[in-house]
Write a structure and sequence with these properties.
The chain is mainly β. The chain has three helices and 32 strands.
Length: 486
């Protein structure tokens, strides 16, 4: 059973001085979640591990993940091949870290798709455990969604088809094998999937080398450089990582940049600021907002993305701006190194939202620990792939009122991610919508004891999809449910 301190650790509660092993019935469904990944090991007491020496920040440049090239293209489809395999990364400058990655990379190669043009990816699994590749935020047929039990077995290859019949957006792909999703993503099975929309070209937003994807996450590394994995280890993950490198710097010109920021941490919420500089938020999970939103702070729970434009033209060469997390400290630094002409802009209007159809039904649901079984649960029940929790007629629109019932021990944070659809957040209990939530979303934060209301339309695809907390340790231990579109 979960201990009180384990629950605190998974909630990243303040004041937790040590982590305690999650212990459950060894014959129960959560056993795989605490099983070491073969060849990598696991610790049940992360606080006892000797950490890697803290190096000087901002000594290594931030890499930009390479864009994967199609192996062939037809009139309407681009074909790719990717391999999930072990690799080694230099997260810290002087240490080699064993990782699991797409093409062996700690941040997998970026796929740049185009709205209305199909992408087909053959994913070969050269790991020693099953995997399931999910493009987070993609509107896809059920067979290509990466259902948590629809595994690519070791040595096998699976072909995923992505129609890209949706608006341009910053998406990302990651492993979703149930019970192993948190560990696999933590060890490196993540990458960007960007949908470029030709309709955005007339806006003249920064593009090309000035359109930069940045994947943020955290980690706990031991003195050898190895990733320390434990389901109750989030409080010890104090190494801040941008595009696979701890606290890098990134040279920029004195001009506008579009930064596509994704939170790929399995548990940490990032609260980001840039030395007080203004950031113009232009997009959220589902793509461009109706209008830019000025902000000096950016909050992203696990799985969320935000596109911001930063005008470094307000600063002279030689200026350095630190992107920092309110809890974890400096994440990366932008170094203004040169002047360049800039013909980009951020218009006052970006992209109109589709109309909200009238809802055909309303549902209520809850996220919280079942106090009888101490399982992470939705509506009091842990995930069971044999059970359909809700049935939704194809083409209908639903409003969900989702409550986080975890108020004990100071409260546990949760968020909710829906597969298949983007949704609109229409109401928050006791507070206005947060910046960016007026746009299309696929992941939404739900504070302890509060509810949110969201509205989604379930389009042409049928089959079984999941919805779950994207604090992936919570999902791995059961905070996931299944919907069937019929």
């Amino acid at each position: 059973m979960f201990s009180r301190r384990s629950l605190l650790a998974l909630g990243v509660a303040a004041g937790t001085s040590a982590a305690v092993s999650l212990t459950r019935n060894p014959t129960g469904p959560a056993r795989a979640a605490v099983t070491p990944h073969p060849g990598h090991g696991v610790t049940t007491h992360p606080g006892e591990v000797r950490p890697a020496p803290a190096g000087a920040p901002f000594t290594v440049p931030m890499p930009v993940p390479p864009v994967l090239r199609p192996i062939r293209s037809t009139a309407d489809t681009d074909f790719y091949r990717m391999t999930m395999r072990p690799g080694r990364a230099r997260i810290l400058p002087d240490l080699q870290t064993p990782v699991l990655g797409y093409d062996g990379r700690f941040v997998g190669p970026t796929i740049r798709a185009r709205a209305g043009r199909q992408v087909v990816v053959a994913q070969q699994n050269l790991l020693d455990m099953g995997t399931s590749v999910h493009v987070h935020g993609a509107h896809v047929p059920a067979g290509s969604d990466g259902h948590p039990t629809d595994l690519v077995l070791p040595g096998a290859t699976r072909v995923y088809r992505y129609p890209n019949r949706q608006r341009g957006a910053t998406l990302w792909y990651h492993d979703h094998a149930h019970h192993m999703e948190a560990e696999h993503v933590y060890r490196g099975l993540h990458g960007f999937y960007l949908i470029d929309d030709p309709q955005e070209r007339s806006l003249r937003l920064p593009d090309g080398e000035y359109d930069v994807p940045i994947m943020l996450r955290d980690a706990h590394l031991d003195e050898t450089g190895a990733l320390v994995w434990a389901p109750d280890g989030p409080p010890f993950r104090t190494t801040m990582i941008a595009n696979g490198v701890a606290q890098p710097y990134f040279p920029v010109a004195a001009r506008r940049y579009r930064l596509r920021i994704a939170n790929a941490a399995t548990h940490r919420t990032f609260t980001l600021s840039l030395d007080g500089a203004e950031m113009l938020m232009i997009g959220s999970d589902g793509g461009l907002l109706p209008a830019p939103v000025p902000c000096t702070e950016l909050v992203l729970t696990p799985g969320e993305r935000s596109d911001v434009v930063v005008d470094f033209g307000h600063h002279r060469p030689g200026r350095r701006l630190v992107l920092a997390d309110a809890d974890g400290g400096p994440v990366m630094r932008f170094d203004v190194v040169r002047r360049e002409p800039d013909t980009s802009r951020v218009p006052d209007r970006l992209r109109a939202l589709p109309p909200l159809p009238a809802a055909t039904s309303e549902r209520t649901m809850s996220l919280g620990v079942n106090h009888e079984t101490l399982e992470f649960a939705i509506d009091g029940r842990a995930f069971d792939p044999a059970r359909v929790d809700i049935t939704i007629p194809r083409g209908t629109t639903e409003v969900w009122k989702v409550t986080n019932t975890d108020t004990a021990f100071g409260g546990l944070e949760h968020n909710l991610h829906l597969h298949l659809v983007q949704f609109r957040v229409i109401e928050r209990e006791g507070e206005p919508l947060r910046p960016g939530e007026e746009g299309l979303k696929d992941t939404v934060a739900i504070p302890p004891g509060r509810w949110v209301r969201l509205q989604a339309t379930f389009g042409e695809y049928t089959g079984r999809y999941v919805y779950h907390c994207h604090m992936l340790e919570h999902s791995a231990f059961g905070m996931m449910a299944q919907m069937e579109i019929v």
